[in-house]
Structure formats: C-alpha cells, structure tokens
C-alpha cells in the first residue's frame, strides 16, 4: 500500500489520538532538546570559592564590613559576574554596567520578580508591600496606583509647596534655636544633622501620604511618640537588609538562630499599629464629607479606590496600610542617608562647598529668600547630588531579584529561580568609567559625564536601580534632596564641631547610612 493510498483511507479515532499524542511528544522533545542545547552550550558563571556545606558562602558576608564591600572585593577576584550559594539558594552577583544592562534590558522581565525571604514575609506583610511583592498582577496594580497618584510629574509639581514649607520650617526652627542659645551665652550651637534631615523627609512623606505632619496617635507635639516612629523606621531598614540563617537554610527557621525573626515581628507589629491608627482616623474622617479627588491625601485616595473585596489575594485594609507604609518607608531613610552623605562630603571638601555657596549667591542672591522655582538654576548643586549618589548610592547592594526562567547573562547560563544581586556601589566606582573614582568631584557631571542621568537609562549611574523594578520615586526624591541641600547651604555657614574631617564609616543595612552621627555648628548667614 502506497503512502498516498494510506492517507486516503479513513482513520480510526484511536489512530487519530495516537498520532496526535506522538506529534505532541515529538514537539515537546524537540523544544526540550533545543532548550537543553542552549543551556549546555552556555557554561555556568564562575562560582566563588570558600563555600561551606549547608550554608554555602553565607559565612563570608558576616563581620564588620558591609556586604557590598565584601562582594566588591570578591568581584576583583572572580570578575564582574559570579555566583554564590547563600545556603540553599544560588545567587548571581553582577558588578559592572555591561552585566547590569543585560539583566535589566534583554532579561528585564526574567529578573522582574522577588524571591521569598523572611524580611519580605514578615516586614513586607506577606509581600503586600509592593516593593517586596513578586512580579505579577498585584505588583503591577499597586505600582500603577502609586506612580500615577503620588509620584507623577504633575503630582510632584503640586507637592513642591509641601516640600518647600517643610524645609523652611526646619530652617526657621534652627534659626530661632540659634538666637535663643546665643542670648543665653552659648558660643557653639550644635545640630545633629541626620535627625534634622529625617524630620524634613518624614514630615513631607506624612503630609503627602497622610495629610498631616509627623504625629503620634494624638497630639502633634508628642515628641516621645514621634521618636517611636523614627526608631521603627530605622529598625525596619536595618532588619530589611540583613542576611539571615532562615533565608539560607529554611528548615532551620523554627530555631530563629540569629534572632532576626523575633526582631522583625516586633518592628512589623509596631509599624502595623501606627498604620492601623492612621487608617481608622481616615475612615472616620471620610464619613464626615464627600471625598473629592485632588483635595485629600494618598490614604484617602486608596480608601476611595481599593474595593472592600480582596485584590489579588490581599484584603483592602492590608493593601491600604502596606502601600502607605511603603511610600513613607521608601522615602524617609533613603533621602535622609543621601543628604547626610552629601553634607559630610561637602564638609570634607571645602572647595566644593565654597563653589556650591558661590553658585547660590550668584543665582539666587545672598540677601534673597530661596523660592520653589529657583532650584532648576543650580547645576553645580545637582552635580553634587549626582556625585554623592555615585559614591554612596542609596541602596549599594540592590534589593534581590529572582529569575523566573532560564536565561543567558554575559554568555553564561543562568537557571530559573536564581537570585540576583547588583552591586551598585562597585559598578559606580569602576575605573574604566570614572577617573579619580574615589574622589568627590561633582565637576565630572558638568563636563565628561554631563549627559548621564539618574533615571535608569545610563547604566554607569543607577543608584535607583533600573528596569521594571526601578524606584518609581526618583523625581520626587531628587526634588526634595536638592531643595533641602540648597536651602541649608543658602541659609547657614556650616562647620564641624572641632573643625576636622567627618568620619565616613558606613553602617550595615539595606540603605547606605553613616555609622556615626553628623554633628555640626550652624551659623545663620542672614536674618530669617
């Protein structure tokens, strides 16, 4: 019987099903073989030495040095792309702009998710903080709301008045304190600048998200309650950046060997108590009158937007509380740390400080009050902020990503479920990108690196990360940081207490903050 004759014969149902099954199996085998060929042709990235049984390389990340410093030293030995075993988890570490660009352009969607971790579960309220949530419909839904309603260009323009009023309130308070202390006979008026910056950023974020300045549960002047909030925020960021035994070896979690789970639960409970009180107050207020878009704060907007029913597995109250906390937390410690580093660098580089002051006197005028629209004129000050973020990126070691499928990075095969850490600090101190790379030279961003921005398009400078998971609050943060720093320099002469250099030792944690407080003497340049 010929082939044509065979085709002309009617086929039994069993034969049809068997043929289809055979074709399906053949197609599946071909696809699997094709995928395997790609995997086998591309070698795995080099793995760092020194791994121990069970915990892998986790022991190398302990000690007094920050993780990004340790991983940077390892990159010098193993190259700009290598892997670690943090307990049972394979982790890819990239440390130069080429590797980062591959991860966040070609493989952007592949690395758009977050891994499961103790911090994401406990501090992230089962990953309901959208910055900690895995890639999917919930993350897209909440990021869209936050981006359009709080962090859009139009909204930031509206919030300039809030920022400016809070900065000027802090300046006025310092001026009045200086007058009072001088009248009492004091020769030095000392200010702790980290708290000074934190109060501004907290008040701006509280007014943006909650419609009021930093308060406790009742009276606005309850400083004890305010300090509890500040401490909870600091504890949150310290704990969020810790490598834990539970993450490395999940089956030992019940022992809580390093005590981090207990600490995280305590901090998470404190933050939730604050958020619950704010939510209940907003619910009471919303019943007093009709809600009108544009007149109320972000929590009001969420109450009017998020349905009472679950959204992608999260109930409405949890979504509202966690999203408001996300914005407050993300905007506070990060900007406070960057401003503290910027002032520290200026105090250690008086020539740069003098140039910044000269620009202010030239562009604004020493006797003139600085206005909301004046900051765009200050190109040198903008370069100072860029150079600060190059040397001391807000998050020096990126929040972990996780690959959702196999991919190729730098010619190496990276399997699905591999965690990704981008060493932003190491990347931004690459001698092939920057000359005199450890020196504080803002001028580079007015000359050789003038066209580099901070918004994830130029991988030589990505302090806010890049790709789908880039920080959505870049414009908001830059606006407030430039406004705060410019106003401070315009209104005060600033020196260290002893006239010496500022200690630049870093403290471990997810954000880059100074280990020691920055105490300075502020002297008004003019009457305020």
Structural write-up:
It is built from 17 helices and eleven strands. The chain has two domains: 39 residues; 456 residues, Cytochrome P450 (Cytochrome p450). It is 50% helix and 8% strand. It is globular, with a radius of gyration of 27 Å. It is of the alpha+beta class and 528 residues long.
- Describe the sheet with the most strands: 4 strands, mixed
Structural category = alpha+beta
Strand content: 5-15%
- N/C terminus separation: 104 Å
Determine the oligomeric state from the structure.
Answer: single chain
Number of strands: 11
Listing every helix as H and every strand as E from the N terminus to the C terminus, the arrangement reads HHHEEHHHHEHHHHHHHHEEEEHHEEEE
Q: What is the CATH first-level class name of the largest domain?
A: Mainly Alpha
What is the number of helical segments per DSSP (H or I, 4+ residues)? 17
